[in-house]
Design goal:
There is one protein chain. The protein is mainly alpha-helical and about 130 residues long. It has four helices and three strands. A three-stranded parallel sheet has the order 2-1-3. Strand 1, helix 1 and strand 2 form a beta-alpha-beta unit. The chain is globular. The N and C termini lie close together (about 10 Å).
Length: about 130
């Protein structure tokens, strides 16, 4: 995040806890603050844990994300607009994701939704 001049880290996980060291909300919030990076949690854009329990294939993920785009994202346009407003204010933001591959990342769907609402206003880079 430092190398990419990130100003705000936006956590779009429903439950910002992790078994992976350093990915829990309290840790991320403290560390980003220490580095002069703001931390914002927007749980409305997360996916319920029970919906992630039986994901065994790429197709399972595609079904999950299709449902996510049709339900969660459409119901939470105000939260999408909040992410966009932070982007417009800070210009350099990052969305928290545990997934290394954006094909398995719901944050990527958040970015696509913003791109559809506000086309050609920013460039996304997967870090």
């Amino acid at each position: 995040m430092i190398i990419n001049n990130i100003k705000t880290l936006i956590d779009v996980r429903k439950n910002p806890i992790s078994m992976k060291y350093g990915f829990s909300k309290s840790f991320l919030s403290k560390r980003t603050s220490d580095l002069g990076i703001k931390y914002t949690h927007i749980p409305e854009l997360g996916i319920e844990s029970d919906k992630r329990q039986s994901l065994n294939s790429f197709e399972d993920y595609q079904d999950l994300f299709a449902n996510y785009e049709d339900t969660t994202l459409k119901r939470n346009i105000k939260s999408i607009e909040k992410v966009y407003d932070i982007l417009m204010q800070d210009r350099r933001i990052a969305l928290t994701c545990f997934e290394a591959d954006r094909n398995y990342c719901h944050g990527y769907r958040v970015v696509n939704c913003i791109n559809n609402l506000y086309p050609n206003e920013f460039e996304m880079q997967h870090l």
